[in-house]
Amino acid sequence: QVQLVDSGGGLVQAGGSLRLSCAASGRTFIRYAVGWFRQAPGKEREFIASITWSGASIYYADSVKGRFTISRDNAKNTGYLQMNSLKPEDTAVYYCAADPNNIGDMRVLHYSYWGQGTQVTVSS
Q: Residue 79 half-sphere exposure, CB side, CA atoms within 13 Å?
């Protein structure tokens, strides 16, 4: 079993930055792909970025490409999402997720473990 704890959200002005963290329990986490998703009120959960266990494959949604950077530190069992140049439309609850099959793509059904979510609010 893997448990994920998201943190790092908050209130930031447009153009600002935040760094989200996803702390995992369980040694097998280092073999899992990590994904980040977000969900705004009244909208479906949206894929943001993913990274395979080795970091060899990284994917981004077009909406965040060039602004967000996904990374991981397997020694610390932690994944990260660095968010720069934030926009009001980035406001949402952000979730990290782990894919035990290390596919690491945009499909929600590939992710078996989810964090509790962390709120990101970007003011204009």
A: 35
